[in-house]
Amino acid sequence: MKSFFTLLLIICCYPVFALQTLTGKVVSIADGDTFTILTANKEQVKIRLYGIDCPEAKQDFGSKAKQFTSTLCFQKIVKAEIKNNDRYGRKIAVVHLPDGRIINKEILRAGLAWHYKHYDNSKELALIEENARKNKTGLWSLKNPVAPWEFRSNKRKKQPQKNKKLCIAYTKSGKHCQHAATTGNRCWQHRI
After folding, report:
1. Which of 7, 96, 132, 174 could be cross-linked to 111 through a Cys-Cys bond (beta carbons 3.0 to 4.6 Å apart)?
2. Does the pLDDT of residue 47 top 90, yes or no?
3. Strands (DSSP E) along the chain, which ranges?
C-alpha cells in the first residue's frame, strides 16, 4: 500500500519536476553565450548557455566566440532545456542543435569559453575545457587568458563613481567630511 502511494505521488508530481523545454529559431546573437530564439507562438526568449562563460566583447576572443556561436546556430531551430532563470530574466539552458550536438559543449571544445564551475560541477564540461587547455585551442593559446567574471569584476572596480559630490562641511576634528552630499552640498549630518 505504501509503495502504491509513493508511485501515485511520483506520477502526479512528475510534470512539476520535469525540465521546461523551448524550441525556436535563433534570431539574434548577443555574444558567445547569449542569444534570442523566436518560439512557434512568436515569443522572443533570451537564452544564456548553462555551464559556460564566454569572453566579453572587449576581451580577447570575445568577438570570435560570438561569431562561432552565430555560425553554429543563427537562423537554425534549436531545442533549449531550461535549467532556471538568471537575475536578468534570461533562461539558463542547455541547447541542442538540429544535428543533436550541444552548443554549450561545442563552444567549450572550440576553446572559446570557460567551464563556469561556480554554477556547474559537470565532470564532462570540466574535461572538455581541460582538453582545450592542453591543446591550446582558442583562447587557451593566450599566455594569460582572463576569465570573463574577473574581467567584469575589474571593470566595475575601475569605473569612477558618477557625479558623487562630497559634503562641503568639516568634522569636529577639522577634517573634510567624506559623506555624500545630498541637499545644499551638505550630507544629512551637516544640514542641521
Report:
1. 132
2. yes
3. 20-31, 34-39, 44-49, 52-53, 77-85, 91-96, 114-115
How many Cβ atoms are within 10 Å of 54's Cβ, its own excluded?
26
Catalytic residue among 87, 90, 106, 124: 90
- Domain containing 67: what range? 18-147
**Catalytic, out of 48, 106, 129, 186:** 48
Q: Is 87 a catalytic residue?
A: no
Same domain, 185 and 113: no
Q: Residue 83: which residues within 8 A CB-CB, separation 6 or more?
A: 19, 50, 92, 93, 94
In a domain, 154, yes or no: no
Q: Catalytic one among 56, 106, 129, 186?
A: 56
One domain, residues 106 and 48: yes
Determine, yes or no, domain membership for 111.
yes
Respond yes or no: is residue 186 known to be catalytic: no
Rounded CA separation 80/21 (Å) = 6
For the residues 9-27, what does the mean pLDDT come to?
71
Total domain count, the chain: 2
Residue 40 counted as domain residue: yes
Q: Which pTM was predicted?
A: 0.73
